[in-house]
Amino acid sequence: MALSVFHHPSLTLPSPPPQPSPPSLRPSPSNSLQFTLPAPRPLLLLLRSSRPNRRHSSLRAGLSSAVDSPPQTSGSQPEKKLILQVRDLTAVIAESKQEILKGVNLTVYEGEVHAVMGKNGSGKSTFAKVLVGHPDYEVTGGSVVFKGQDLLEMEADERSLAGLFMSFQSPVEIPGVSNINFLRMAYNAKREKLGLPELGVFEFYAYLYPKLELVNMKTDFLDRNVNEGFSGGEKKRNEILQLAVLGAELALLDEIDSGLDVDAFQDVAKAVNGLLTPTNSVLLITHYLRLLQFIKPTCIHIMENGKIVKTGDISLAEALEKDGYEAIAKPH
Ligand SMILES: Nc1ncnc2c1ncn2[C@@H]1O[C@H](COP(=O)(O)OP(=O)(O)OP(=O)(O)O)[C@@H](O)[C@H]1O
Ligand SMILES: [Mg+2]
Protein backbone atom coordinates (compact mmCIF):
# COMPACT_ATOMS: atom_id res chain seq x y z
CA MET A 1 0.00 0.00 0.00
CA ALA A 2 0.90 3.56 0.03
CA LEU A 3 -0.88 5.63 2.60
CA SER A 4 -3.37 8.20 3.35
CA VAL A 5 -6.74 8.29 4.69
CA PHE A 6 -10.18 8.92 3.67
CA HIS A 7 -10.85 11.96 5.69
CA HIS A 8 -11.85 9.92 8.49
CA PRO A 9 -13.20 11.51 11.65
CA SER A 10 -11.07 9.09 13.58
CA LEU A 11 -7.93 10.44 11.99
CA THR A 12 -8.36 13.87 13.39
CA LEU A 13 -10.28 12.84 16.47
CA PRO A 14 -8.88 9.51 17.53
CA SER A 15 -11.52 8.65 20.07
CA PRO A 16 -11.01 5.19 21.50
CA PRO A 17 -13.96 2.85 21.31
CA PRO A 18 -15.80 2.41 24.60
CA GLN A 19 -14.55 -1.04 25.51
CA PRO A 20 -11.60 -2.07 23.46
CA SER A 21 -10.34 -5.55 23.99
CA PRO A 22 -6.94 -5.51 25.59
CA PRO A 23 -4.12 -5.79 23.15
CA SER A 24 -2.38 -9.09 22.93
CA LEU A 25 0.94 -7.87 21.75
CA ARG A 26 3.88 -10.13 22.10
CA PRO A 27 7.29 -8.59 22.40
CA SER A 28 8.85 -9.24 19.05
CA PRO A 29 12.09 -8.37 17.29
CA SER A 30 10.07 -6.05 15.11
CA ASN A 31 9.66 -3.66 18.02
CA SER A 32 13.26 -2.62 17.77
CA LEU A 33 13.01 -2.16 14.02
CA GLN A 34 10.11 0.13 14.53
CA PHE A 35 12.24 2.72 16.22
CA THR A 36 15.11 2.59 13.81
CA LEU A 37 13.05 3.77 10.88
CA PRO A 38 12.56 7.48 10.28
CA ALA A 39 8.94 8.47 10.64
CA PRO A 40 7.35 8.40 7.19
CA ARG A 41 9.70 5.74 5.85
CA PRO A 42 7.52 2.72 6.65
CA LEU A 43 5.65 3.57 3.51
CA LEU A 44 8.69 2.93 1.43
CA LEU A 45 8.92 -0.60 2.78
CA LEU A 46 6.03 -1.35 0.55
CA LEU A 47 7.90 -0.42 -2.55
CA ARG A 48 10.82 -2.59 -3.43
CA SER A 49 13.55 0.03 -3.27
CA SER A 50 13.76 3.60 -2.12
CA ARG A 51 14.97 5.07 -5.38
CA PRO A 52 12.90 8.15 -5.97
CA ASN A 53 10.64 8.17 -8.98
CA ARG A 54 10.80 11.76 -9.90
CA ARG A 55 10.10 12.98 -13.36
CA HIS A 56 12.72 11.78 -15.82
CA SER A 57 15.13 14.54 -16.80
CA SER A 58 14.62 14.05 -20.53
CA LEU A 59 10.89 14.63 -20.76
CA ARG A 60 9.72 14.26 -24.26
CA ALA A 61 8.05 17.46 -25.21
CA GLY A 62 4.79 17.45 -27.03
CA LEU A 63 3.95 13.82 -26.43
CA SER A 64 0.27 13.33 -26.42
CA SER A 65 -2.07 10.42 -26.57
CA ALA A 66 -3.95 9.66 -29.70
CA VAL A 67 -7.09 9.10 -27.67
CA ASP A 68 -8.06 11.37 -24.85
CA SER A 69 -10.49 10.21 -22.24
CA PRO A 70 -13.90 11.42 -23.31
CA PRO A 71 -15.46 14.08 -21.13
CA GLN A 72 -16.60 12.57 -17.87
CA THR A 73 -19.78 12.96 -15.95
CA SER A 74 -17.99 15.10 -13.43
CA GLY A 75 -17.45 17.79 -16.07
CA SER A 76 -20.99 18.91 -15.46
CA GLN A 77 -20.39 19.27 -11.74
CA PRO A 78 -17.90 22.12 -11.52
CA GLU A 79 -18.50 22.58 -7.81
CA LYS A 80 -16.65 19.36 -7.10
CA LYS A 81 -13.03 19.53 -6.10
CA LEU A 82 -10.52 18.17 -8.58
CA ILE A 83 -8.51 15.37 -6.98
CA LEU A 84 -6.42 13.97 -9.79
CA GLN A 85 -5.62 15.19 -13.25
CA VAL A 86 -3.40 13.01 -15.40
CA ARG A 87 -2.39 14.38 -18.76
CA ASP A 88 -0.55 12.51 -21.48
CA LEU A 89 1.36 10.47 -18.95
CA THR A 90 4.12 8.32 -20.39
CA ALA A 91 6.42 6.05 -18.45
CA VAL A 92 9.07 3.42 -19.07
CA ILE A 93 10.42 0.51 -17.04
CA ALA A 94 13.41 2.06 -15.29
CA GLU A 95 15.77 -0.78 -16.07
CA SER A 96 14.97 -1.61 -19.67
CA LYS A 97 13.52 1.75 -20.74
CA GLN A 98 10.65 -0.13 -22.35
CA GLU A 99 7.69 2.20 -22.67
CA ILE A 100 4.58 0.93 -20.89
CA LEU A 101 2.41 4.01 -20.42
CA LYS A 102 1.86 5.72 -23.73
CA GLY A 103 -0.17 8.80 -22.94
CA VAL A 104 -2.70 8.26 -20.16
CA ASN A 105 -5.37 10.87 -19.55
CA LEU A 106 -7.68 10.73 -16.56
CA THR A 107 -9.53 13.20 -14.40
CA VAL A 108 -10.98 12.31 -11.01
CA TYR A 109 -13.11 14.58 -8.84
CA GLU A 110 -13.84 14.12 -5.16
CA GLY A 111 -16.43 11.52 -4.30
CA GLU A 112 -15.99 9.67 -7.58
CA VAL A 113 -15.26 6.00 -8.13
CA HIS A 114 -13.39 5.30 -11.36
CA ALA A 115 -12.87 1.78 -12.61
CA VAL A 116 -10.04 0.85 -14.93
CA MET A 117 -10.44 -2.35 -16.89
CA GLY A 118 -8.39 -3.79 -19.71
CA LYS A 119 -6.68 -6.90 -20.95
CA ASN A 120 -3.80 -8.49 -19.08
CA GLY A 121 -0.63 -6.53 -19.69
CA SER A 122 -2.38 -3.37 -20.91
CA GLY A 123 -0.68 -1.23 -18.24
CA LYS A 124 -3.26 -0.86 -15.46
CA SER A 125 -1.02 -1.82 -12.56
CA THR A 126 1.85 0.13 -14.03
CA PHE A 127 -0.34 3.20 -14.17
CA ALA A 128 -1.27 2.89 -10.50
CA LYS A 129 2.30 2.16 -9.46
CA VAL A 130 3.61 5.14 -11.39
CA LEU A 131 1.09 7.32 -9.55
CA VAL A 132 2.41 6.21 -6.16
CA GLY A 133 6.02 6.64 -7.25
CA HIS A 134 7.11 3.03 -7.60
CA PRO A 135 10.85 2.92 -8.27
CA ASP A 136 10.56 0.34 -11.07
CA TYR A 137 9.25 3.02 -13.42
CA GLU A 138 10.43 6.31 -14.80
CA VAL A 139 8.06 8.99 -15.99
CA THR A 140 9.09 10.30 -19.38
CA GLY A 141 6.33 12.76 -20.18
CA GLY A 142 3.04 14.31 -19.24
CA SER A 143 1.79 15.67 -15.95
CA VAL A 144 -0.06 14.55 -12.85
CA VAL A 145 -1.71 17.03 -10.53
CA PHE A 146 -2.97 15.66 -7.23
CA LYS A 147 -5.00 18.06 -5.07
CA GLY A 148 -3.36 20.98 -6.84
CA GLN A 149 0.19 19.71 -6.36
CA ASP A 150 2.61 18.34 -8.93
CA LEU A 151 2.56 14.68 -7.92
CA LEU A 152 5.55 13.76 -10.06
CA GLU A 153 7.78 16.07 -8.06
CA MET A 154 6.91 14.32 -4.80
CA GLU A 155 8.72 11.36 -3.22
CA ALA A 156 6.71 8.18 -2.76
CA ASP A 157 6.21 8.74 0.96
CA GLU A 158 5.20 12.36 0.38
CA ARG A 159 2.53 11.12 -2.00
CA SER A 160 1.21 8.80 0.67
CA LEU A 161 1.21 11.45 3.32
CA ALA A 162 -0.56 13.79 0.90
CA GLY A 163 -3.50 11.38 0.71
CA LEU A 164 -2.73 8.77 -1.93
CA PHE A 165 -3.09 5.09 -1.07
CA MET A 166 -2.45 2.04 -3.19
CA SER A 167 -3.35 -1.54 -2.50
CA PHE A 168 -1.13 -3.69 -4.66
CA GLN A 169 -2.27 -6.50 -6.92
CA SER A 170 0.47 -8.58 -5.29
CA PRO A 171 0.88 -7.14 -1.81
CA VAL A 172 4.44 -6.94 -0.56
CA GLU A 173 5.62 -9.05 2.37
CA ILE A 174 7.73 -7.30 4.99
CA PRO A 175 9.70 -9.84 6.98
CA GLY A 176 10.60 -8.78 10.50
CA VAL A 177 7.89 -6.14 10.83
CA SER A 178 4.69 -7.11 12.58
CA ASN A 179 1.45 -5.97 11.06
CA ILE A 180 0.45 -3.94 14.09
CA ASN A 181 3.80 -2.20 14.36
CA PHE A 182 3.75 -1.43 10.69
CA LEU A 183 0.26 0.03 10.88
CA ARG A 184 1.13 2.07 13.94
CA MET A 185 4.32 3.45 12.38
CA ALA A 186 2.50 4.41 9.22
CA TYR A 187 -0.44 5.89 11.10
CA ASN A 188 1.80 7.85 13.43
CA ALA A 189 3.75 9.19 10.46
CA LYS A 190 0.48 10.50 9.15
CA ARG A 191 -0.41 12.03 12.52
CA GLU A 192 2.98 13.66 12.74
CA LYS A 193 2.37 15.26 9.36
CA LEU A 194 -0.93 16.61 10.73
CA GLY A 195 0.80 17.93 13.84
CA LEU A 196 -0.90 15.38 16.08
CA PRO A 197 0.83 13.46 18.86
CA GLU A 198 1.82 9.86 18.30
CA LEU A 199 -0.50 7.16 19.55
CA GLY A 200 1.00 4.69 21.99
CA VAL A 201 0.46 0.96 21.66
CA PHE A 202 -2.74 0.85 23.72
CA GLU A 203 -4.26 3.97 22.21
CA PHE A 204 -3.48 2.69 18.75
CA TYR A 205 -5.07 -0.64 19.47
CA ALA A 206 -8.24 1.11 20.56
CA TYR A 207 -8.26 2.98 17.27
CA LEU A 208 -7.49 -0.16 15.29
CA TYR A 209 -9.95 -2.56 16.83
CA PRO A 210 -13.11 -1.31 15.05
CA LYS A 211 -11.23 -1.39 11.74
CA LEU A 212 -10.52 -5.06 12.23
CA GLU A 213 -14.22 -5.60 12.62
CA LEU A 214 -14.87 -3.60 9.48
CA VAL A 215 -12.77 -5.99 7.40
CA ASN A 216 -13.75 -8.98 9.51
CA MET A 217 -10.17 -9.84 10.36
CA LYS A 218 -8.95 -11.81 13.34
CA THR A 219 -6.58 -10.19 15.82
CA ASP A 220 -4.06 -13.01 15.22
CA PHE A 221 -3.02 -11.29 12.04
CA LEU A 222 -1.75 -8.27 13.93
CA ASP A 223 1.22 -10.03 15.45
CA ARG A 224 2.25 -11.71 12.23
CA ASN A 225 4.77 -10.06 9.95
CA VAL A 226 3.20 -7.92 7.26
CA ASN A 227 1.66 -10.25 4.68
CA GLU A 228 4.22 -12.96 5.41
CA GLY A 229 2.61 -16.34 4.83
CA PHE A 230 -0.80 -14.71 4.36
CA SER A 231 -3.02 -16.42 1.82
CA GLY A 232 -3.98 -14.42 -1.26
CA GLY A 233 -7.34 -13.50 0.24
CA GLU A 234 -5.84 -12.62 3.62
CA LYS A 235 -3.42 -10.26 1.92
CA LYS A 236 -6.29 -8.49 0.17
CA ARG A 237 -8.16 -8.13 3.44
CA ASN A 238 -5.01 -6.78 5.02
CA GLU A 239 -4.66 -4.19 2.29
CA ILE A 240 -8.15 -2.94 3.04
CA LEU A 241 -7.32 -2.90 6.75
CA GLN A 242 -4.38 -0.62 5.91
CA LEU A 243 -6.72 1.61 3.94
CA ALA A 244 -9.20 1.69 6.82
CA VAL A 245 -6.47 2.63 9.28
CA LEU A 246 -4.65 5.15 7.16
CA GLY A 247 -7.44 6.45 4.98
CA ALA A 248 -6.99 8.18 1.63
CA GLU A 249 -8.33 10.99 -0.42
CA LEU A 250 -7.58 8.84 -3.42
CA ALA A 251 -7.31 5.08 -3.03
CA LEU A 252 -5.92 3.07 -5.92
CA LEU A 253 -7.19 -0.47 -5.46
CA ASP A 254 -5.55 -2.92 -7.83
CA GLU A 255 -7.62 -6.08 -8.21
CA ILE A 256 -8.82 -6.18 -4.63
CA ASP A 257 -11.34 -8.74 -5.83
CA SER A 258 -8.89 -11.27 -7.18
CA GLY A 259 -8.51 -14.55 -5.33
CA LEU A 260 -11.23 -13.82 -2.80
CA ASP A 261 -13.73 -16.40 -1.68
CA VAL A 262 -17.39 -15.41 -1.66
CA ASP A 263 -17.38 -14.22 1.97
CA ALA A 264 -14.11 -12.35 1.65
CA PHE A 265 -15.35 -10.67 -1.51
CA GLN A 266 -18.43 -9.40 0.34
CA ASP A 267 -16.36 -8.24 3.30
CA VAL A 268 -13.86 -6.38 1.16
CA ALA A 269 -16.48 -4.78 -1.07
CA LYS A 270 -18.55 -3.73 1.95
CA ALA A 271 -15.50 -2.35 3.70
CA VAL A 272 -14.56 -0.24 0.68
CA ASN A 273 -18.12 1.04 0.37
CA GLY A 274 -18.08 1.82 4.07
CA LEU A 275 -14.99 3.96 3.61
CA LEU A 276 -16.40 6.01 0.77
CA THR A 277 -17.42 9.55 1.61
CA PRO A 278 -18.44 12.47 -0.59
CA THR A 279 -14.91 13.83 -0.40
CA ASN A 280 -12.73 10.86 -1.17
CA SER A 281 -12.25 9.02 -4.41
CA VAL A 282 -11.35 5.56 -5.53
CA LEU A 283 -9.69 4.18 -8.61
CA LEU A 284 -10.57 0.52 -8.88
CA ILE A 285 -8.66 -1.75 -11.19
CA THR A 286 -10.67 -4.86 -11.91
CA HIS A 287 -11.44 -7.46 -14.52
CA TYR A 288 -14.93 -8.20 -13.28
CA LEU A 289 -18.37 -6.66 -13.48
CA ARG A 290 -19.22 -8.26 -10.17
CA LEU A 291 -17.11 -5.87 -8.13
CA LEU A 292 -18.62 -2.92 -9.95
CA GLN A 293 -22.09 -4.12 -9.01
CA PHE A 294 -21.05 -3.77 -5.36
CA ILE A 295 -18.89 -0.68 -5.57
CA LYS A 296 -20.74 1.50 -8.04
CA PRO A 297 -18.39 3.38 -10.35
CA THR A 298 -18.91 6.91 -11.61
CA CYS A 299 -17.36 5.79 -14.85
CA ILE A 300 -15.38 2.98 -16.37
CA HIS A 301 -12.23 3.30 -18.43
CA ILE A 302 -10.73 0.74 -20.73
CA MET A 303 -6.97 0.67 -20.94
CA GLU A 304 -5.27 -0.73 -23.97
CA ASN A 305 -1.59 -0.72 -24.78
CA GLY A 306 -0.73 1.90 -22.17
CA LYS A 307 -3.58 4.32 -22.85
CA ILE A 308 -7.17 4.84 -21.85
CA VAL A 309 -9.00 4.22 -25.09
CA LYS A 310 -12.60 4.28 -23.97
CA THR A 311 -14.66 5.69 -21.11
CA GLY A 312 -18.26 4.91 -20.35
CA ASP A 313 -20.74 3.76 -17.75
CA ILE A 314 -21.53 0.34 -16.30
CA SER A 315 -22.80 -0.83 -19.70
CA LEU A 316 -19.17 -0.97 -20.81
CA ALA A 317 -18.39 -3.55 -18.14
CA GLU A 318 -21.59 -5.42 -18.95
CA ALA A 319 -20.67 -5.62 -22.63
CA LEU A 320 -17.22 -6.80 -21.65
CA GLU A 321 -18.55 -9.49 -19.38
CA LYS A 322 -20.91 -10.71 -22.07
CA ASP A 323 -18.79 -10.62 -25.19
CA GLY A 324 -15.20 -9.86 -24.15
CA TYR A 325 -12.92 -7.13 -25.42
CA GLU A 326 -13.88 -7.71 -29.06
CA ALA A 327 -17.32 -6.34 -28.20
CA ILE A 328 -16.10 -3.03 -26.91
CA ALA A 329 -13.50 -2.61 -29.63
CA LYS A 330 -16.41 -1.94 -31.99
CA PRO A 331 -18.04 1.50 -31.99
CA HIS A 332 -20.26 1.57 -28.95
N1 LIG B 1 8.91 -4.01 -13.60
C1 LIG B 1 8.66 -4.56 -14.79
N2 LIG B 1 9.59 -5.25 -15.45
C2 LIG B 1 9.31 -5.80 -16.66
N3 LIG B 1 8.13 -5.68 -17.30
C3 LIG B 1 7.17 -5.01 -16.68
C4 LIG B 1 7.37 -4.39 -15.40
N4 LIG B 1 6.24 -3.77 -15.04
C5 LIG B 1 5.37 -3.96 -16.04
N5 LIG B 1 5.92 -4.71 -17.02
C6 LIG B 1 5.25 -5.13 -18.26
O1 LIG B 1 4.39 -4.08 -18.65
C7 LIG B 1 3.17 -4.59 -19.18
C8 LIG B 1 2.01 -4.00 -18.37
O2 LIG B 1 2.02 -4.60 -17.07
P1 LIG B 1 0.91 -4.29 -16.00
O3 LIG B 1 1.26 -5.06 -14.78
O4 LIG B 1 0.75 -2.84 -15.87
O5 LIG B 1 -0.38 -4.90 -16.71
P2 LIG B 1 -1.88 -4.99 -16.18
O6 LIG B 1 -2.74 -4.25 -17.13
O7 LIG B 1 -1.94 -4.62 -14.76
O8 LIG B 1 -2.16 -6.56 -16.36
P3 LIG B 1 -3.01 -7.59 -15.45
O9 LIG B 1 -4.45 -7.41 -15.84
O10 LIG B 1 -2.50 -8.93 -15.88
O11 LIG B 1 -2.73 -7.30 -14.02
C9 LIG B 1 3.28 -6.10 -19.10
O12 LIG B 1 3.66 -6.59 -20.35
C10 LIG B 1 4.35 -6.33 -18.06
O13 LIG B 1 5.04 -7.54 -18.27
MG1 LIG C 1 -2.25 -5.65 -13.03
Would you give an account of this structure?
With 332 residues, the chain is an alpha/beta fold. It has a single domain (9-329), classed as P-loop containing nucleotide triphosphate hydrolases (Rossmann fold). Helix content is 33%, strand content 22%. The chain has helices at residues 9-12, 30-34, 124-132, 156-162, 179-193, 201-215, 220-223, 232-246, 262-275, 289-294, 314-329, and strands spanning 82-93, 99-109, 113-118, 137-146, 149-150, 164-167, 174-178, 225-226, 250-254, 281-285, 299-304, 307-312. The strands form three sheets. Strands 6-9-10-3-11-12 form a six-stranded mixed beta sheet, with helices on both faces. A four-stranded antiparallel beta sheet has the order 2-1-4-5. It is globular and about 55 Å long. Mean pLDDT is 81; it is low at 1-40, 49-54 and 56-75.
Structure, briefly:
Its EC number is 3.6.3.23. This protein is α/β, with parallel strands linked by helices.
- SS-derived structural category: alpha/beta
Helix proportion range: 25-40%
Q: If strands are numbered along the chain, what order do they take across the biggest sheet?
A: 6-9-10-3-11-12
**CATH architecture grouping:** 3-Layer(aba) Sandwich
Which segments are poorly predicted (pLDDT under 50) over 5 or more consecutive residues? 1-40, 49-54, 56-75
General form: globular
Helix count from the secondary structure assignment: 11
For the record, what is the CATH homologous superfamily label?
P-loop containing nucleotide triphosphate hydrolases
Can you list the ligands bound to this structure?
Answer: adenosine-5'-triphosphate, magnesium ion
The fraction of residues assigned to DSSP E strands is 15-25%
- In sequence order, what are the helices and strands, one letter per element? HHEEEHEEHEEHHHEHEHEHEEH
Q: What is the overall pLDDT average?
A: 81
What Rg is obtained from the alpha carbons, in whole angstroms? 19 Å
Main sheet overview: 6 strands, mixed
CATH class: Alpha Beta
The CATH topology label is Rossmann fold
Give the total of beta strands: 12
Question: What count of structural domains?
Answer: 1
Through-space gap between termini: 35 Å
